[in-house]
Amino acid sequence: MLELKKSNLTTFREDNHPMLRHLRSPKKALLVLLCLLLCLSASATAFAFGRGAKGPDVYAVQGMLKSLGYFSGNITGTYGAATEEGVKRFQKAHGLPITGAVDNQTLQAILWAYGNLKIPKKPAPAPVPKPAPTPPPSREPVPKPNEPAPRPASNLRAVA
User: Fold this and answer.
1) Which residues pair with 49 in a beta bridge?
2) DSSP state of 87
3) Residue 21: DSSP 8-state
4) What confidence tens digit (pLDDT) does each residue in 14-73 have?
5) CA distance to 30, 82, 146, per residue, from 35 (Å)
6) How many CA atoms within 13 Å lie on the side-chain side of 131?
7) What pLDDT is recorded for position 121?
């Protein structure tokens, strides 16, 4: 059986993880742990933006709101009073909390509404009329315009 001693554990950790030797200080270990937690939590967090924000995200939201009829200003990429008012109008019309900021829920609603506006809907196909049924062909030949009509056959024979 393997006998565990404190010296064996120390050697094992240092041999397999040479980077751990640098983290023996509690301050360094705490700093690394804090950095890892910040990195992991930031990737799962959606950030809202509002008045004063600038950039391509604001530019895109302004364009979508303008297409939807909620923003009438110029598309500048700067989140100002006109953009905030357009966001508030959109939020009110779609039953969202009226904050004037674009949070995750508002952004998803804007994207959904814009997608519904821009993605062409396939119209229902027009019903195809059914042709009128054709009558079954008759057994008697149809007379040609210049020929006399055929006489019906009879079972009586003329006696001569």
Assistant:
1) 102
2) H
3) G
4) 455 555 555 556 666 555 555 555 545 544 445 678 888 999 999 999 999 999 999 999
5) 9, 38, 105
6) 3
7) 74
Residue 90: which of 116, 75, 110 has the closest Cα? 110
C-alpha distances (whole Å) from 132 to each of 17, 135, 136 are 86, 9, 12
Q: What is the total residue count of the chain?
A: 160
Q: Looking at the predicted structure, is the pLDDT value of residue 94 above 90? A: yes
Distance of CA 116 to the CA centre of its chain: 9
Closest CA to 51 of 30, 82, 26: 82
Most distant CA atoms of the chain, gap in Å? 141
* Cα dihedral value 11, 12, 14, 15, nearest 10: 100
Displacement of CA 131 from its chain's centroid (Å): 42
